[in-house]
Amino acid sequence: MSEIESAITAAEESYIAALNSDDLESVLSCFTDNARVLAPGSETISGKDAIREYLVSLATMGVTKTESVIEECGGEGTHGFLRYSSKLFKEDGSLFDEGKGVVLYTKDTDGKWKIFLDVANSNKQ
Q: Coil, strand, or helix at residue 102?
């Protein structure tokens, strides 16, 4: 695994851990200020305030746990990507959704890898 692949994998693992910790500020720190999320069935979600609202809406629907498997990862310089598959679970352990996506990362001025675009798809028909 290359240095950039290791760094992006570590950033993604930190993001998933933050999602599962129920610490919204830690989750938001994984995104750039102008990040975008393209979630299933939604308009483009732009910026940290809108991402916060989206994450709160998921919690309101009962989503409490995320599992993610990195399928592919790479990049060059200050930009990287990963392709993943994921499952979202409700508090009772039941499956809320299953899908896949692509995340684009950028290396911030402080040297931290952050998400600037997350394109998620649902496997539901």
A: strand
Cα 13 from chain centre: 10
Q: Which two tokens stand for residue 40?
A: 């299933």
Check if the beta carbon of residue 15 is closer than 8 Å to that of residue 95.
no
CA gap 124, 108 in Å, rounded: 34
**44-55 as b/e: b if 16+ CB within 10 A:** ebeebebbbeeb
The Cα 82–Cα 76 span in angstroms is 12
Mean pLDDT of 3-11: 95
Interval 33-60: pLDDT, tens: 999 999 999 999 999 999 999 999 999 9
Average per-residue pLDDT in the chain? Answer: 95
φ, ψ of residue 117 in degrees (nearest 5): -155, 130
